[in-house]
Design a protein that fits this description.
It is a single chain. By secondary structure, the chain is mainly alpha-helical. It has three helices and no strands. The chain has one domain.
Amino acid sequence: MTKYTEDQELIIAQYEKNLTFTDRESYLKWRDQWRQDYAEISGEIRTLRRTMVETMKAGSYAGQSQYNRLSKRQAAFKYMMQRTASKRKSAKLRAAAIAEKAAA
């Protein structure tokens, strides 16, 4: 399990409050959209890295490529925190459903 700092835990808790899914089907739909978005940003990061390396090999200034890549990596980290929040909320929903089923 990934260890987050106290500040990151607060951000994850806020993300968890903002998640809109309320059942398994809406969670799976949300997760599929998240995967598509994350794959896109991940691909952009890889492309920016290749561009940065090629620029540096050519002996040119790659500062803007480095900045863009860093910005995308920070965004990707936020996506991962959203995913952690979604897993936590999903687990809570699943536990509630099991408890409801057991009470019935």
